[in-house]
C-alpha cells in the first residue's frame, strides 16, 4: 500500500498549503508572476509524482516539491523578462525547466533507471492537460484552431517575448474570455495575454487538435 495519508487528500487543500508555506508574493492566486492556472499545474504535477508507481513511495513527495517547482518556473520567467525587457509572467514554456531541475528531488523505483526524465515529463504533460480540461473544458477555441490552420505555425519558447508571441498569433476571438476563465480578469498586460494564449495552444496540442515541435527551449505549434 502506498503511504500518502499524511498529504492533503483534496487538491484545494494542497493549493492552500502551498500558498501558506511559500512566498506569498510569488504564489498568490492573482500574482502577476505566476498565474493561478500554472500554480494548479504544479500542484497537480506534485500529486501525480507522489502517486506514480514509478516513484518510491517511501521517499515522499511533499509540498516543498511544488514550492521548488514554482521557484524554478518563476526564475525562468524572470530570465525571459530580463532578456526581453518585459514584465515577467510565467507561461507553459517555463514549465519544462522543472523536469531536469527536480529530478534529484525524487527517488524512483529501481526498475525505472534511465527513464526518470521521461516519467516526469509525462506526468507534467498529464497535469497540464488536467488543468486545461478543468479550466477551459467546453471553451470555444475555434479561433485558435482556425488561426493555426490558415495562418501558419506559431513559435514560442522560454526566451520568446510576449509581444512576439501575440504578434505571431494575431487577433484571436475569445482570448479575453479565456483570460477570465483562467482567473486573470483584471490582467491586461501582454504577458498575461500571452500566458493564456500559450496555455490554450498547449491544451489543444495535448488534446491532439494541433501539432507541436520542440527544439530545446523553443516550441512551434502548427496544424495537425
**Mean of residue pLDDT?**
86
- Count of alpha and pi helical runs: 10
Q: Kindly estimate the percentage of residues that lie in beta strands according to DSSP.
A: 5-15%
What number of structural domains do the residues give?
Answer: 2
Structure characterization notes:
- There is one protein chain.
- The chain has helices spanning 11-21, 24-27, 36-51, 63-84, 98-102, 116-136, 142-151, 162-169, 175-181, 190-206; strands at 154-157, 210-215, 218-223.
- It is mainly alpha-helical and 224 residues long.
- The chain has a three-stranded antiparallel sheet with strand order 1-3-2.
- It is globular and about 50 Å long.
Characterize this entry briefly:
With 224 residues, the protein is mainly alpha-helical.
Q: Notable features of this structure?
A:
54% helix, 224 residues, mainly alpha, 10 helices, 3-stranded antiparallel β-sheet
SSE order and pairing:
Blueprint: H1 11-21, H2 24-27, H3 36-51, H4 63-84, H5 98-102, H6 116-136, H7 142-151, E1 154-157, H8 162-169, H9 175-181, H10 190-206, E2 210-215, E3 218-223
Antiparallel strand pairs: 1-3, 2-3
Helix pairs in contact: 1-3, 1-4, 3-4, 3-6, 6-10, 8-10, 9-10
Amino acid at each position: 500500500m502506498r503511504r500518502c495519508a499524511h498529504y492533503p487528500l483534496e487538491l484545494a487543500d494542497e493549493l492552500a498549503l502551498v500558498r501558506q508555506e511559500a512566498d506569498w508574493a510569488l504564489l498568490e492566486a492573482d500574482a502577476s508572476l505566476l498565474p493561478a492556472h500554472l500554480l494548479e499545474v504544479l500542484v497537480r504535477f506534485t500529486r501525480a509524482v507522489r502517486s506514480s508507481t514509478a516513484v518510491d513511495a517511501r521517499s515522499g513527495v511533499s509540498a516543498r516539491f511544488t514550492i521548488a517547482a514554482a521557484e524554478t518556473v518563476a526564475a525562468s520567467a524572470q530570465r525571459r523578462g530580463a532578456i526581453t525587457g518585459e514584465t515577467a509572467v510565467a507561461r507553459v514554456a517555463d514549465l519544462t525547466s522543472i523536469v531536469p531541475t527536480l529530478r534529484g528531488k525524487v527517488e524512483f523505483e529501481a526498475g525505472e533507471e534511465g527513464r526518470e526524465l521521461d516519467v516526469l515529463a509525462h506526468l507534467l504533460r498529464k497535469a497540464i492537460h488536467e488543468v486545461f480540461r478543468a479550466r477551459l473544458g467546453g471553451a470555444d477555441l475555434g479561433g485558435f484552431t482556425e488561426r493555426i490552420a490558415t495562418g501558419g505555425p506559431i513559435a514560442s519558447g522560454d526566451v520568446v517575448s510576449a509581444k512576439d508571441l501575440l504578434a505571431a498569433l494575431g487577433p484571436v476571438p475569445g482570448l479575453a474570455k479565456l483570460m477570465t476563465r483562467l482567473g486573470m480578469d483584471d490582467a491586461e498586460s501582454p504577458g498575461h495575454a500571452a500566458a493564456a494564449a500559450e496555455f490554450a495552444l498547449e491544451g489543444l496540442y495535448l488534446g491532439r487538435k494541433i501539432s507541436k515541435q520542440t527544439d530545446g527551449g523553443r516550441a512551434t505549434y502548427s496544424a495537425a
